[in-house]
Description:
The chain has a domain at 64-94 and 153-286: Rossmann fold, CATH 3.40.50. Strands 5-4-6-7-10-9 form a 6-stranded mixed beta sheet, with helices on both faces. A 4-stranded antiparallel beta sheet has the order 1-2-3-8, with no helix packed on it. The protein is globular and about 45 Å long. The N and C termini lie far apart (37 Å). It is 36% helix and 23% strand. The chain has 287 residues and is α/β, with parallel strands linked by helices. The structure holds zinc ion (ZN). Zinc ion binds at residues 7, 9-10, 12, 36, 38-39, 41.
Amino acid sequence: MNQITTCNYCECDDLTPILQVTDHSITNEKFELLECFCCGLIHTSPQPSETEIGKYYQSDNYVSHSDTKEGLINKIYHIARKIALNRKASIISDFHKKTSLLDIGCGTGYFAAHMQRRGYTVSVMEPDPGAAEQAKQKLNVDPYTTLEAVQGTYKTITMWHVFEHVLDINKTFEKIESLLDTDGVLVLAVPNPESPDAKLYKENWAAYDVPRHVYHYKKTVIKQIANRYDLKVHSILPMKMDSYYISMLSEKYKGGNILKAIWNGLRSNIKAGKHNTSSLIYIIERK
Length: 287
Ligand SMILES: [Zn+2]
């Protein structure tokens, strides 16, 4: 485990502890959130190394629940996922239609398959062998298993709730920049630690999801990172469904109830407006 003593993005050594958070879904281990005074990046500390991270993913918790309450959360999650899928496709088609698309961290290929059906030439990257195999069957495309291996240039690159899991920010952005076509767009969705539901649930906010989420990105930090790699944030779009799902999980960790979660999700969305919801989508392009 790597104790964080300097910022992994800007190398500043002025890090402030802001919260202690428990791994609620698998190990019950405690982690600290450290915010960099210089750039604002929030780190999970300690961070599991590439070889240690496996044990924090060993669970079916996310999808296969059996009791009613957890089953209900999952049912809602699956309905929301379908609605979200159509919205994702419509956001992308505002920029590029039926062109090349690279989905980084494609999982089982659910989103990539949807885009393939809509006429996009889809490439995918997925490090998990099981998920990559399912994506291969679904897409009839050989997934890349590392980002380094990805070749070519793309009109659209998507990372749906993936970047917060990635250890090396600089290496990742440098590679993404090299893969982006001149008029290409990077669509990056990450949880928003400044959202009203994050402020409300504090250490119980489910989207901290430590230590699987190694960083927690404020808007200013995403803008700085893009800027370092000659990119810029074109626009920020809300993800309103996430506040309900995250509130439900957060209430579960607190021993609260589902009605309270729905109420808090709604309140969070009203307070958040368009640019401060539970998760945000960043549309990033070349300067
Ligand atoms: Zn920093």
